[in-house]
Amino acid sequence: MRLGRLFWKFFFAFWLALLLAGGGVGTAVWWLHQAEAEHPGSEDDRLLAGGPRVASEVKAAAAVLGRGGEGALRGFLADMNEARSPRLLAVDEAGRELLGREVDAAALAQAGERADTDNPRRGVRRVTDVHGRVWLLFVPAESRDHEGAFPRPPGEPRPPFGRRGPPPSPWLPIVSGLVASVLFSALLAWYLSKPIRSLRWALGAVAEGRLDARVRPLLGGRRDEIADLAEDFDRMAQQLQTLVGAQRRLLHDVSHELRSPLARVQAAVGLMRQDPERLELTLSRIEREAVRLDELVGQLLTLSRLDTDRRDTPREPVDLIDLASSIADDARFEARALGRELRFEGQGEAEAMIWGELVQRAFENVIRNAVKYTADGTFVEVSAFADGDAFTLRVADRGPGVPAAELDSMFEPFHRGSNTGGASGFGLGLAIARRAIDAHGGTIRAVNREGGGLQVDITLPLAASAPQKE
To answer: How far apart are CA 319 and CA 208, in angstroms?
Structure first.
C-alpha cells in the first residue's frame, strides 16, 4: 500500500514533537544527575569536593603514589597547583600533608570515614605507597571556586560550604519540551485546518450559485492530498459551471427553435381565417410545421437520454465494422435518390462493449450529414478499421466544408454552419453524435479536405475496460 504525502507530514510532525518532548525530559534527567554528582545533598558532603573532575584527579594521584612513591606524588601535586587544578591533599597516617598545606580537621575526619566505604567517583581514596606508608587522598570543598573546577584566587571570599548555589530547576527543560510540542501541534493543526476552511467556503459559495469559486489558488504551494482534493473540487466546479452554461444556452436555443414553427403555425391559422377557401393549403403548411416540431422534440429527447437512460442500460458486445457497414448500406439508397453515391471500405472485426443504440445513432448522423452536404455527382467515402486497441470510422464528403473557426463549434447543439446553403435541420445531429462518442471514452473531430469537403473521424476504444464519462 502506497503511503501518501499527507501521511508523511503527519508522521514527521508528530515524530519531531515527540523527539523534542523526549529530549526535554532526557535533558532534565541528565541535568539532575549532574547536579547530584556535582552537589551532593547530604550535610557531610559540604566538607568534601566531588564530581567527575575531582574523582579523575584523585585517581591519577593514587596511581602516581602507588607506582612512584612520595617523591613522584610531590611533583604531581606541584604540577596540579601550577595548572590550577582542584586542590588535592595527600595526608599520611600522622596527619601531615605532603606539601605542608593546612588541612581542615573535620574534612580530614570525614575523608577518613569515607575512604573505605565511599564511591570512588566521589574523590576519596586511601593508598599505600611503595614504602608501605598509607596516604589519604581527597579534595576539600573550599578548594573549588563557584565553577567547581579551580582553586580561588587569593583574597576571593569562599562561598558557603564551597557550593555553586542551588541546583538548576528540573522544570525548565520539561516546560521547554512541553511548549515546543504545543507549538508544533498548533502549527500542524493550523496547517491542516486552513485548507479545510477554504474548502468549506468554496462549498458554501457553490451552494449559493457562485460556480466560479475556486480553492486551489488559496492553498499556495501545497503538494499533498488536500491540494489534490482542492484540484478535484475545482474541476467539479468548472464542470458544473460548463454544464449550467450549456443548459442555459440550450434552453435559449430550444426556445428560439420552437418559436419559429409556432409563429408559422399561428400565421397559417390567421390566413385560414381570413381566406377559408385556402383551407387545404393552410392545413398542409400546419402539418409540415407539426412534423418539424415533432422531429425537433424527438432529437431533444434523444440528446437528453444520452445523460440519463444509458446509466441503467448494460453495454453489449458489438462488431463496430459490421455496424458501420449496415448503416452505410442504408445511407447509400438515400444518396442515390439525391444523385450522389456512397462507397464503404471495411474489413476484419472490431468488437467492443458499447451502448449499441447510441453508437448506431452517432454513426448514422455523421454519415447522413455527409450525404446531405456532398455535391451532386460526387460520392461519400466511408472507411472503418481497427488499429491496435482503437476503432476508427472515417467519413469524407465533397461538400462546401466548414470554416476553420467553426470546426470545434459544429458539434455544439443548434449550431448551423455559415456555408450550409440554407439546408434544413436543427443542428442537433452532430451534437448527439459527440455526446454518444464521449460517453464511450472516444473522440470525434472534423477537418477540411484538400480539394474541398469535410472529413470526420470517430475513434472508439476497443478495450472492455475503456473509461466511460458519466
So the answer is: 47
Contact yes or no for 306/344 (Cβ under 8 A) = no
Taking CB atoms within 8 Å and a gap of at least 24, the contacts of 109-115 are 110/44, 110/47, 110/48, 111/48, 111/136, 111/138, 112/136, 114/48
Instruction: Name 263's Cβ contacts closer than 8 Å, sequence gap at least 6.
Output: none
User: How far, in Å, CA of 113 to CA of 58, rounded?
Assistant: 17
Question: Which residue bears the cell 566538607?
Answer: 47
What's the pTM value of the predicted model, to 2 decimals? Answer: 0.47
Distance, CA of 203 to CA of 197 (rounded, Å) = 10
- The 10s digit of each residue's pLDDT in 225-258 is 888 888 888 888 888 887 787 677 667 666 666 7
> In angstroms, rounded to a whole number, what is the distance separating the alpha carbons of residues 98 and 100?
6
DSSP run (H or E) holding 383: strand 379-387
Which DSSP string corresponds to 211-267? TT--SGGGGTT--SHHHHHHHHHHHHHHHHHHHHHHHHHHHHHHHHHHHHHHHHHHH
Euclidean distance between CA atoms 253 and 318, whole angstroms: 35
Residue-wise pLDDT for 119-173, tens only, equals 554 578 888 887 888 888 888 876 444 334 444 444 444 444 344 455 556 677 6
CA contacts within 13 A on the Cβ side of 12: 5
C-alpha 138: how far from chain center: 66
C-alpha distances in angstroms, 433 versus 169, 247, 305? 81, 18, 13
User: What does residue 246 show for φ and ψ, rounded to 5 degrees?
Assistant: -65, -40
Q: Report the candidate in 164, 170, 169 with the shortest Cα–Cα distance to residue 50.
A: 164
Q: Cα 439 vs. chain centroid, distance in angstroms?
A: 29
DSSP structure class, residue 464: T
Residue pair 362/440 in contact (Cβ under 8 Å)? The answer is no
